[in-house]
C-alpha cells in the first residue's frame, strides 16, 4: 500500500468531521489560514486537501476561496474508498492512546514516588547516603539566568538535580537547557555533605565571584 500524503490524511479527517456533523451541510469552513493553524501545516497543504474534497463533490470553493460543505453522502463515499488507509491508521491510533495512558500512569507513579522521597527525606537520612535535599535560589545568586548545563553543578559539588520546583509546579529530571530563576528550588541528591556544598555554590553572590576574580 502506498504511503498516504499529509494532505490526503487531512482531507480524510475533514471528511470524517463532516460525517460526524461537526461541519454540517451548507456551513462554511474557516479560511485556509485558520485550517492550517488547526492542523499545523502550511496553507498550501490545506489547499491540496480541499482540492481533493472538491473533486469528490464534498465541498464547494468559491472565487473568494470560501469553502462550503455540500454533501455528507459524498464524504461517506470518500471515506469508504480510503478504508485501506484508515483501518491501519485507526489501529495505530488506538495503540498510541494505550501507550499514552500507560505513560501517564508511569509518570504519575514516578511523580508520587519522588514526592514521597522528598517529603520523607529526613527519615531517610540514616538509611541512605543519597538522601534528596531541597535548595532555594536566593535573589542574588550567581546561577540566576544560567542554564543547568552552564552551572556544571555535578562538577562543582558532586550533586545531581532530580527535580526543580517553580511556583506550585515541579519539573522532574529537568533538562540541561532550563534556565534557573529567583526562588526556584532545586532538589538534589548526593553524599552527606551535599546540602552544604550545593547551598554554598548555588547561592554564592555574583559580587563575591567578581571580587574573587579580580
From TrEMBL:
Gene3D superfamilies: Regulator of K+ conductance, C-terminal domain, Winged helix-like DNA-binding domain superfamily/Winged helix DNA-binding domain. Residues 119-204 form the RCK C-terminal domain. InterPro entries: AAE_transporter (IPR050144), RCK_C (IPR006037), RCK_C_sf (IPR036721), Tscrpt_reg_HTH_GntR (IPR000524), WH-like_DNA-bd_sf (IPR036388), WH_DNA-bd_sf (IPR036390). GO terms for biological process: potassium ion transport. Residues 4-72 form the HTH gntR-type domain. One of its GO terms (molecular function) is DNA binding. Keywords: DNA-binding, Transcription, Transcription regulation. The keyword Isomerase does not apply. The keyword Ribosomal protein does not apply. This is GntR family transcriptional regulator.
Amino acid at each position: 500500500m502506498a504511503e498516504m500524503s499529509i494532505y490526503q490524511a487531512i482531507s480524510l479527517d475533514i471528511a470524517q468531521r463532516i460525517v460526524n456533523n461537526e461541519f454540517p451541510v451548507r456551513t462554511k469552513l474557516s479560511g485556509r489560514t485558520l485550517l492550517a493553524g488547526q492542523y499545523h501545516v502550511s496553507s498550501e497543504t490545506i489547499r491540496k486537501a480541499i482540492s481533493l474534497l472538491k473533486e469528490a463533490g464534498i465541498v464547494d470553493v468559491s472565487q473568494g476561496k470560501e469553502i462550503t460543505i455540500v454533501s455528507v453522502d459524498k464524504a461517506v463515499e470518500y471515506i469508504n474508498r480510503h478504508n485501506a488507509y484508515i483501518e491501519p491508521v485507526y489501529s495505530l491510533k488506538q495503540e498510541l492512546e494505550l501507550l499514552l495512558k500507560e505513560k501517564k500512569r508511569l509518570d504519575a507513579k514516578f511523580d508520587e514516588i519522588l514526592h514521597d522521597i522528598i517529603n520523607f527525606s529526613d527519615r531517610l537520612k540514616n538509611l541512605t547516603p543519597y538522601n534528596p535535599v531541597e535548595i532555594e535560589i536566593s535573589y542574588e545568586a550567581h546561577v540566576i539566568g544560567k542554564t543547568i548545563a552552564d552551572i556544571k553543578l555535578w562538577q562543582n559539588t558532586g550533586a545531581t538535580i532530580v527535580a526543580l520546583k517553580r511556583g506550585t509546579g515541579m519539573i522532574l529530571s529537568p533538562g540541561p537547557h532550563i534556565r534557573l530563576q529567583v526562588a526556584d528550588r532545586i532538589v538534589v541528591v548526593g553524599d552527606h555533605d551535599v546540602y552544604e556544598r550545593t547551598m554554598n555554590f548555588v547561592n554564592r553572590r555574583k559580587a563575591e565571584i567578581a571580587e574573587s576574580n579580580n
